[in-house]
Specification:
Strand order of the largest sheet: 1-6-4-5-2
Number of strands: 11
Order of helices and strands: HEEEHHEEHEHEHEEEE
Oligomer: single chain
Largest sheet: 5 strands, mixed
Structural class: alpha/beta
Shape: globular
């Protein structure tokens, strides 16, 4: 079903992870243009690589199977006015936005983390910040108010350091350690699912903060 007021909040398992079965049971499909970002920038070159992949999958008739994979479901929060805020996978959303596909096909599968639509705007954003579901900084690292965030993924700015960070991660320069319940990265590399304590020979690769 399309994401809307009837979309139910997904339930994490005992490990605070959202299973693919739960995503399919309570999830929904949403047009990329309806998603509101919770950060101001992405690495556009990194997103372009994903966009080429999306276009290729679409040309081969495999787009829906590609987007239905467990690590490509996007997490959202329903905010005031019923607006859906994207809390992760901004690069994938930009990739679909820029892909060489028909506009009506520019959709992604989503699952609802929380329904905070009844909150006032100020309370909503305070809760988003406290839950680490918004990155209220510009590409220079300066703090910004929620009102400075773009209102659609097509207006996200380019931050070259995010592209650098993504490529270093994809080549096993560090392991991104997501908080419990976060969607896994969609790097498509052999190291994408390594844990923080993965062993490399006789030593371990430590968890690192991308920023």
């Amino acid at each position: 079903p399309a994401c809307g007021w009837t979309t139910k909040v997904a339930r994490p398992n005992d490990d605070l992870m959202y299973t693919l079965q739960e995503k399919k049971r309570r999830g929904c499909i949403i047009e990329v243009k309806a998603l509101h970002p919770t950060q101001s920038a992405v690495g556009m070159l990194a997103a372009a690589c994903k966009s080429a992949r999306v276009s290729s999958e679409a040309a081969a008739g495999n787009l829906q199977d590609y987007l239905l994979k467990d690590n490509r479901w996007v997490p959202v929060v329903r905010g005031p006015g019923g607006v859906f805020y994207l809390t992760d996978h901004h690069h994938l959303a930009v990739a679909v936005w820029n892909a060489t596909i028909e506009d009506q096909d520019k959709k992604v599968y989503a699952y609802l983390l929380d329904d905070w639509s009844a909150l006032k705007e100020s309370v909503f954003w305070e809760r988003m910040k406290n839950a680490h579901r918004a990155w209220l900084f510009n590409r220079a690292g300066q703090s910004i108010p929620p009102s400075a965030l773009p209102n659609e993924v097509g207006k996200l700015q380019d931050d070259p350091l995010r592209t650098l960070s993504a490529w270093v991660r994809e080549n096993c320069g560090y392991v991104k350690c997501d908080p419990p319940g976060a969607a896994k990265s969609d790097d498509g590399q052999s190291c994408a699912d390594r844990s923080c304590e993965e062993k490399f020979g006789s030593k371990k690769l430590p968890c690192a903060n991308a920023y």
